[in-house]
Amino acid sequence: MSKPYLHIAGLGVRYGAAVALEDISLEVGQGERLALIGESGSGKSTLAMAVAGLLPEGAKATGSVDFPTLGYKPRPGKDIGVLFQDPNGSLDPVMNVGDQIAEVAMIHQGIGWTAARVRAAELLGAVQIPRPLTRLNSYPHEFSGGQKQRIALAIALAGNPSLLIADEPTSALDTVVQRHIVNLLDRLVRDNGLTLIFVTHDIALASERTDKIGVLYRGRLVEFGPAADVLGAPRHPYTRALVDTHISLDTPRRKRLAEIDTAGLE
Amino acid sequence: MSPTPILEVKNISKRFGDRGGAGLRDISFVLAPGETLAVAGASGSGKTTLARLIMRLAEPDKGSIHLAGQDITALSGERLRRRRSRFQMVFQDPLAAFNPRATVRDVLEDPLRLHGLANPGDYGATIGAALERVGLGTDLIDRPPRQLSGGQRQRVAIARAIMTKPELIVLDEPISALDVSVRAQILNLLLDLKEQTGVAYIFISHDLAVVRAFAERLIVLDEGRIVESGDTETVLKAPKTETTRALIEAVPRLIF
């Protein structure tokens, strides 16, 4: 059997006395797309950041996170690109976007500044910013929220990573912009053969866009497997409740909406 | 004859929204007492500008807004202030809508004091009753909102809004910042309050699945114009414009 791209065994993360993750084990193949689902505080972002090597100071990790096909410890920014929920937090407001992308390309691809600026224009085009060459010298505030997230995606891809981690990349955007960004993300991941970890609270989005789903509940991975299996035959009551209470365009209309009974989940 | 509408928006236009918001072009609609009207549209369509105009947080360039038959665009100063208790708003991010140094008690005392709704001696009991109505216990009354969960905070925001017994509440994306698991609870709370009090809602959202579950009527905005309006189910079944089709198509489908 071929080696997995990502192999996590017995991973635990603590912040002081607070346990954020407990005994997580999973494997992701090269080019696979994994969704991590869970509510705030479930540990889904902590797991993504543990994979990215971006746990905050003061976090204590046990267990192992390995990249067998890579054969070395991945460098964040180079081997792993990360896209966060709020692009305003990732973009430097006083540096033009061309320089921000070029900086990453230059550092991680060992190319000169001119080549890096050319690469920046290519990447802006790849994330569908219209007239990319003329926008290199624009600043983040000159773009809309959706465009800023595209630029953050260009930066995440500038080091030519093999893994892209997207942490709720569209939660702050409206559904129409969300659809455009997710379509773009999907295409770039496929075209470049990237492995994707997609953190989301939206099971429908996960079901449309990923191969595997992991569900986190109170720091534990309570469900992990092919998306269709996890959602079609959930084993954990939290997953079951998420599927049952999902509001879709064809949910039968009723006087009240189905709620998740959190007390009944233990 | 039909009863006086709770809200009548007549031909309002605004060249630019304030704070860089989208403008509005010739918007008219009517809301009956106890009705829920959804305003849907993508970012920049003018949804929030419309909410701010209805709340009299901004002035239209043209047109007028009538609340229970009275032109509130013609009101100012003390007369507007006295009228304000009758229309309230709940924001997407309640944390940004509360004074960060206030406690839950402070947040809920403000409307009582500003509108003279209770004797100071009765504040405690009135606040307790409001918390109970939104499903919260009085144990969190001395906590600042940032120590509450997202769902609890939104409940406090709803408690503040219903405190003045308004006839209209503008809900600006009230659940989109909340965990999926608490969204239905907040929507159900709003539905219950509507049934109990007959309050009317303007429900601003970009998520048509949620709109369909919550609002009987819908208007769709695009670039500051109403491009489609009608019974929610009818509009969603047979959308007539590309804007509405794009909004429908953008709702993620649960597939397995």
From TrEMBL, chain A:
Entry's Pfam families?
A: ABC_tran, oligo_HPY
Q: Keywords assigned by UniProt? A: ATP-binding, Cell inner membrane, Cell membrane, Membrane, Nucleotide-binding, Translocase, Transport
* Example of a GO biological process term: peptide transport
Does the keyword Metal-binding feature in the UniProt annotation?
no
Topology versus the membrane, per the UniProt entry?
Peripheral membrane protein
Under the heading CDD domains, the entry gives: ABC_NikE_OppD_transporters
| Gene Ontology cellular component annotations, sorted alphabetically | plasma membrane
Q: Which residues form the ABC transporter domain?
A: 6-243
Give the UniProt subcellular location, in the record's own words: Cell inner membrane
Family in the record: Belongs to the ABC transporter superfamily.
What is this protein's name?
A: ABC transporter ATP-binding protein
UniProtKB/TrEMBL annotation, chain B:
Q: Which residues form the ABC transporter domain?
A: 7-248
Keyword set for this entry? ATP-binding, Nucleotide-binding, Transport
Q: Name one GO molecular function term.
A: ATP binding
The family database entries (InterPro entries) matched by this protein are listed as:
AAA+_ATPase, ABC_transp_ATP-bind, ABC_transporter-like_ATP-bd, ABC_transporter-like_CS, P-loop_NTPase
Give the matching Pfam families.
ABC_tran (PF00005)
Record GO biological process = transmembrane transport
State the PROSITE patterns in the record.
Answer: ABC_TRANSPORTER_1, ABC_TRANSPORTER_2
**Highest rank taxon of the organism:** Bacteria
What the record says about family reads: Belongs to the ABC transporter superfamily.
> What is the protein's name according to its record?
ABC transporter ATP-binding protein
Biological source species: Phyllobacterium pellucidum
